[in-house]
Amino acid sequence: MFGGFDYDVILRSLPILWQGMQLSLLLTGLAMSGGIVWGTLLALMRLSAFAPLSVAAGAYVNCFRSVPLILVIFWFYFLVPLALGRPVGPFYSALIAFALFEAAYYCEIIRAGIQSIPRGQVLAAEASGLTYWQAMRLVVLPQAFRNMVPILLTQGIILFQDTSLVYVVALKDFMTAASVVANRDGRLVEMYLFAALVYFLICFAGSYGVRRLQTRVAA
Amino acid sequence: MKYNWNWGVLVEDPYLFWLLSGLEYTLLLSLSAWVIAFSLGSAIGVSRTLPLAWPRKLATAYVELFRNVPLLVQMFLWFFVVPELLPADLGRWVKRDMPFPEFWTAVVCLGFYTASRVGEQVRAGIQSIPRGQYIAALATGLGWMQAYRLVLLPLAFRLIVPPMTSEFLNIFKNSSLALTIGVLELTAQSRQIENYTFQGFEAFTAATVLYLVITMIVMLSMRWMESRTRVVGMIGTRR
Fold this sequence. Notes:
With about 220 residues, chain A is mainly alpha-helical.
């Protein structure tokens, strides 16, 4: 059944696949950074004692977590050019979609991380004269983030897998590049199996690394 | 920002029908896939806790494999690659004679993918039960199969209602990936309405609202089920 397996098509398309992979990694990195920053702000809003803020942040998170990522990608592919009044291409609209979407998930992780810090830390910080922002920046968030690193990275691996969905707006990431070659050369079996193997190796190595890190952080 | 609002498009002739048929496909696809995910996932979760090495290793390999490949890639593998690798006769049947090939391929793909996640929840549920329960069951003369069937699983399934709720919600959201192999489910239909009418706002809002409604119905019914199945006095049921 692997008699007609054409390894050559994979070798020939390595440059285009590598370009796609660079785009996948770039998108993952940027969306992750944006998602963590916006997610932290959302988490602080959700934990705020000021009701309108916490309600708004809660609604944001619940809305984004209730709809499929593909629908969010379509939304922003349609909205961003409309809002700016000029075409921007799929990369920026996809990047905005991913950052805003992932922020909802990061918010929940970070909120749990902040809540795991004992209340006494905040009280002690306030008692020593720090303002709210100082207490968060110097006392609470550094401790919370230290505990959260493994979960944030795991979410990053999920995000990396999700970037393959930019296929639906024809943005040339690794998956789309593989699919273009597959259809052009009529080599679907080879290209899709190779794509699966590459994704598997990266994500498996990533989650193995996170597990190692987890035991080190816990120790 | 210039935009011509026309909410009426949502109730116009083919478009309302498109939305409803999309909703129907999303529901049918997700619920059928859940049947596979739940049964296979339970078997995998149980296997991962067994004292027998082979089933445990096999189940672990399954979970690692399905969790580390993006769902989109899996969708393409099931749709384009698997029929080629099957024995010739079966492959020909899948490609030519199988009814609704896109739909059933998506059901199988989504079911097998979600099974790996359900399996992890079931395993966590079983492992959260104090070991004494299992030992006591064995001490009263039950075999390990009986201990699982009569003691561990009834407890475990009641403990994991909350995480299973989020997996159940995920399957509705993930069903949107079926559009990549041509199933016209809810997201695909809203995109199609946008393409035909340029009323993206209205079309995507309709889809968003329908997904929110699905989420809300699932959350409310699972909350009701959780209150009915709560195990009194167990860890993880505080509240």
